Amino acid sequence: MAEVAIVMGSQSDWPTMQKAALILKELGVEFHAQVVSAHRTPNLLTEFAESAADKGFKVIIGGAGGAAHLPGMIAAHTHLPVLGVPVRSSQLSGLDSLLSIVQMPKGVAVGTLAIGEAGAANAGLLAAQIIGTTNPDVAQKIIEFRTKQTETVLANSTLELP
Ligand code: RP5
């Protein structure tokens, strides 16, 4: 059963949000990915967020661009942790998305990641780390991921002129 939901405002967000999905897959965490728009499908957003805990989700990742209300509105309808990914926008390069998501007034929390693919990948990683607090198999995979990453950097640390 999927423990992490990845929702996004549009199909156009999927190339970015796939980076979260790929990390979750690598770490052995089942996910469900779906388009849910705060603006275009507001009733679906309410229904999705209110039923997410009962469906067994433990963490929700929300990605959106522009006036990106999606993560905050999902967080308003559920007690589950919500991670927000600001998707890069065509007009303001994602600064609009970032500010829309990160500046939550106190009382309803959204954990905001970086703009774009790095943020999406780290949202997947952070979601897995949350799942890993109660799932030793996932925690072990995260430790191995970090070890491999460190070894790769160390093995390629020498710099030379071209
Ligand atoms: C937002 O508007 C979406 O999250 C997307 O980042 C942006 C543009 O959506 P499309 O016009 O490409 O569907 O709601």
UniProtKB/TrEMBL annotation:
Q: Name one GO molecular function term.
A: 5-(carboxyamino)imidazole ribonucleotide mutase activity
What is the E.C. number? 5.4.99.18
Report the superkingdom from the record: Bacteria
Is the keyword Protein transport in the record?
no
**Any Pfam family hit:** AIRC
Q: Where does the PurE domain start and stop, copy by copy?
A: 2-153
Pathways per UniProt: Purine metabolism; IMP biosynthesis via de novo pathway; 5-amino-1-(5-phospho-D-ribosyl)imidazole-4-carboxylate from 5-amino-1-(5-phospho-D-ribosyl)imidazole (N5-CAIR route): step 2/2
Q: Catalyses which reaction?
A: 5-carboxyamino-1-(5-phospho-D-ribosyl)imidazole + H(+) = 5-amino-1-(5-phospho-D-ribosyl)imidazole-4-carboxylate
Name the Gene Ontology biological process terms.
Answer: 'de novo' IMP biosynthetic process
Residues where substrate binds: S10, D13, R40
UniProt entry keywords in alphabetical sequence: Isomerase, Purine biosynthesis
Q: Does the keyword Magnesium apply?
A: no
Q: What job does the chain carry out?
A: Catalyzes the conversion of N5-carboxyaminoimidazole ribonucleotide (N5-CAIR) to 4-carboxy-5-aminoimidazole ribonucleotide (CAIR).
Supply the NCBIfam families for this chain.
purE
Q: Which family does it belong to?
A: Belongs to the AIR carboxylase family. Class I subfamily.
Name the HAMAP family on file. PurE_classI (MF_01929)
Q: Would you tell me the protein name for this molecule? A: N5-carboxyaminoimidazole ribonucleotide mutase
Source organism per UniProt: Saccharobesus litoralis
